[in-house]
# Entry
Amino acid sequence: MKSSVITFPGSNCDRDMDVALKKFGFKNKMIWHNDNELPKSDLVVLPGGFSYGDYLRCGSVASKSKIMQSVINFAKSGGLVMGICNGFQILVETGLVPGVLLRNKYLEFICKNVFVKLDNKDNPYFKNLEKDIFKLHIAHNEGNYFCTEDQLKEIKDNNQVAIYYCNNDGKIEEEFNPNGSIKNIAGILNKEKNVLGMMPHPERMIDSCLSGEDGSLFFKNLLNNIK
Amino acid sequence: MQVNEKLAVEHGLKVEEYKLICELLKRTPNLTELGIFSAMWNEHCSYKSSRLHLKKLPTKGKKVIQGPGENAGVIDIEDGDAIVFKIESHNHPSFIEPYQGAATGVGGIMRDVFTMGARPIANLNSIHFGSTQHKKTKNLLRGVVHGIGGYGNCIGVPTIGGQTCFDRSYNGNILVNAMTLGLVKKNKIFYSKAAGLNKPVIYVGSKTGRDGIHGASMASASFDDKIEEKKPTVQVGDPFTEKLLLEACLELMAGDSIIAIQDMGAAGLTSSSIEMASKGKLGIEINLDKVPCRETKMTPYEIMLSESQERMLIVLENGKENLAKKIFDKWGLDFAIIGKTTDTKNIELFFNSEQVAKIPINILVENSPMYDRKWKKTKLPKKNKIQKKDLKNLKILDVLKKMISNPNVCSKKWIWEQYDHTVMGDTIQKPGGNSGVVRVHGTNKAIAAAVDSSAVYCWAHPLTGGKQIVCESWRNLISVGAKPVAITNCLNFGSPEKEENMGEFVECVEGIGEASKYLAFPVVSGNVSFYNQTKEIGIKPTPVIGGVGLIKDYTKMITMNFKSEGNLVLVIGKTEGHLDQSLFARTILDEKNGPPPEINLFNEKNNGETILKLIEDNYIKSAHDVSLGGILMGVSKMCIEGNVGIEIKKPDSLLSEFEYFFSEDQGRYIIEISKSDIKKVTSILEKNAVHYDEIGTLVGKSVSFNEKTIVPVDELKSYNNNWLKDYMR
# Structure
């Protein structure tokens, strides 16, 4: 299976994503932001980092970069596009997924392990996963998901919430919400379920000595789903 | 502007130094030249008060590839790999503007490391603040933490460890020391020594602005009431540009175009150009019209003294200009050929087709002043006799709760959760343990690193204190299973012009040297920060040691959390009951006098090597060195991290409970072993003549002493975890 990871100036999880994808059997290519065309891909990943320094709204400049037109077309034709952390922020800025990402509630960067609960498995990313609760890692300053009430209703009606922050028992409550996200939302899908944006980094949980392997489960499953 | 004595003094030069300049030049310098001298001859850049003493430090060793004198030190970690590392201070700017001061401190040290061709793989920091009651402390702490995170997180280098201390002696002068480690192939290390004539001198990175002018001079003076006015001397960081500069430089370094490379740090274009030429025994010619400027009408003086960040100077091979330019264009960075190397041994500057400065380089470097400052020896204080009656009314549980939530002991999670410590996917030991540990990407090896200071010990007796921090660094590395390889030091002191402060410096350095020599733990890089002083009040002497160690097989790494019920806990090393200068004496008894605990280098080495042997043989399940607060602080933290309780029994001895559990004798570790291994472990310890006490068994979820006093681990955890969070919110 072929994957492409986009490197924007300021991306800093691009290598980590490359390592993770290759570890689980993807043939991955690194794509420069200034390229015009995406190579043939089964999966496109927008990695974490601080694209263009995030000096404007996070992800806004990257969403207008050259390669993104090609990524947007790929997504609109049903291709799988996944944005992690800064990648999620970029997806929000393109409008491929609804809502916005505000600064964290306490205005502090947060780097720690969290638990997330899958909301539905009716999508190519989580289909066939045996567990519902995953231990993943977050590292961000702007992960406080927000949308209007109408948007929230639409998101829920369409089963677009991908994951919620929760505790190790899967309880979704405010005290387990690390950043103030509305309804504890940690990740969102588009209506068609081929575009996924989420704050947690599965690529940082692919080794037992890196505080967990739930990321490995995610990548292995994703590869099998695409095959 | 008329250059005279008065102007020279305003530039931070002494009258005699100005006279020496005129004598060496055989004329009066012009303004630009005066600026260059002030930049090169200030304490921060010239090490004029410290050079004489730093020479005595052991800097060589089997694993040392590069010692002090380059942008950073380099050690061999086998298989063709090397680690480049250094620690540096950014104290003065961080007090004036905490966010930018701390951020650019991190940016500067990372540049020092990737200038040598290494990709940064880990950051650490040591930060010291005033009393938690002081009105500025909270804002300074918040600003510094945000600044460190803001820069490091953006670059994508994990911050894997650090230390945070509070003491009223930092009320007017905080310390921000940042350390970076980078990974490089041994045969791809880049140096700053220029070579060859008529080689193009290239400027890359950000444009030059008016920020940070005289930054290095500001960092070479004490503070007074008008320190806020110095804000314009603080540089402004742009981590995004640094990330691009890092990637662009490493891309260029993959080829063979670079002869020499030097980042523009303190004293900017001045010191970088002069250092490269000086090391190569060459001259250098720079056309200042070619320097990319952010602002209009910048004068030669401003261009030469600007400390704008994220800039590099490169001496290229002839004919490689286009290739190099293409790389920097790709990353959207400025690239300009601004000059060439010459055989004149002068630095010559041109602006608007006119020569605006011409100074022989040896005058600026070799002939720069070096002082043998007067210093005063500190006598070893008399031992306090702590009276039994002082201890009579104390309850061990009250003491434990008070100490575990002490600002200098409590969990610093609030801080390190704001630093990305997992990016790059190789952090196998997070902050909060004895050392941070990162894997060497794609190998079985790992690198451990720790930063330590013990200002209280250094203040009480600098010689002992100097030895102690080297030993503590050594123990922190050993506690995670790493073989200590080398250290970097950041020497933070008050004014060298005061005999007491200079004495503290001289004796701390002597202590550091003695311990690092004995332990074969050489100093490969470092930095001196004097004038951490406001008016007449200086900080406690605070040398900070950054230690680096190698773990050959990372699956053997040890962590500090207690692992399983039923296991035994031993204290390695002898507990003598030394309470003077301990946290217990200072915070519970309010007793500030007396000598620090004695250092016995033989025991230190022997105990450490024996622990490594026990780790090698897979006997140790968890380990922690005994440091601030003594055995009970260490054991409590291991319980908290492991979420498991312990039944403690004080071994029979003449020591009281307080002396046994809270004394800070050196050379000790707490280890957890399996019950079935006890005979094998003790026979190894006895064979190596290492003292040990068996102090308890892991059981349940509470800590209990002598079957009398019991406290749930969860309760200790909330005392330990909540203090800082509550203080900051």
